[in-house]
Amino acid sequence: MPAQIPSEDEVLGYFDRLSNWGRWGPDDELGTPNLITPEVTKRALATVQEGVTVSLAREIMWEGALDVPSPPVHYMLESGEGWASGEKVSARPNQAAIDYIGMVFHGVAVTHVDSLAHFFWKGKTYNGKPAHLVSTSLGATVCSVVAAKQGFISRGVLVDVPLVRGIDWIERGEGVSPEDILAAEERFGFKVQEGDILLIRTGQLRRRNVEGPVDRSAGSTACQAACLPLFYERGIAVMGSDTGNDVSPAQYAQVTQPIHQVGITAMGLWILDNADLEALAEACASRGRYEFMVSIGPLPLHNTTGSPVNPIAVF
To answer: Which of 84, 91, 208, 273 has most Cβ atoms within 10 angstroms of its Cβ?
Structure first.
């Protein structure tokens, strides 16, 4: 770990220093996934050797918990009850089961991507779009998740920080440092490159699986703000982790969620929250290989600020 984290003044400077505003034109609403060119995707396909797939999504559960105060809602509009006995229990002409699902996918329970309409800074989001264009009545009329309806298919790299450090998990309130990423590169022989989907395992989900949920006031680990310049310099397209992707309690007074605030509004960086990287870590360790293809397909939800996803890694 570095001796000290960047000062808040340094982090405030990231909004200008790491800005991608105008880089892909004044009307761009896609941001860093522009770096996933056809050539980048073709190189990602070349990493596939076995055809083995690994899901990076948490199972969506309907029960509340200490860290899930607003769980997704699921109920059946039609079920199979009664049909087995031949009793008609519905006005529908055919025997079928039909679900209803509703959810607040932002938070720390559902694996999802954030569109560039999710966060603002000084009344604007990515590329200078005014915050009022994301409204209560209309939703995200700019920078909606629909900008990503073609999906992201690129090379993924896993930085398994607990493995690098020789621990079970990173403590809540402690951040992943750029040095952790560089140490993983050196140890496992990959290099984070332009257009990559960078996945950071902290072990926090493993800790939840072992110890159970805790109230969100207990804090969270994530990448510390010091990682943002590395993300920018390497040109990553998407970053994600097994957490909500900001250290808490907040380390700064103004920039309380720097990965989201700087990453989304200045860089145009798409963020994958709450991934399940446990099976992926096992797959990488068993192969001694920490690069693979990743496919992320956000739902084309009209005027929304993100989407639940089931990212798939392919070895």
So the answer is: 273
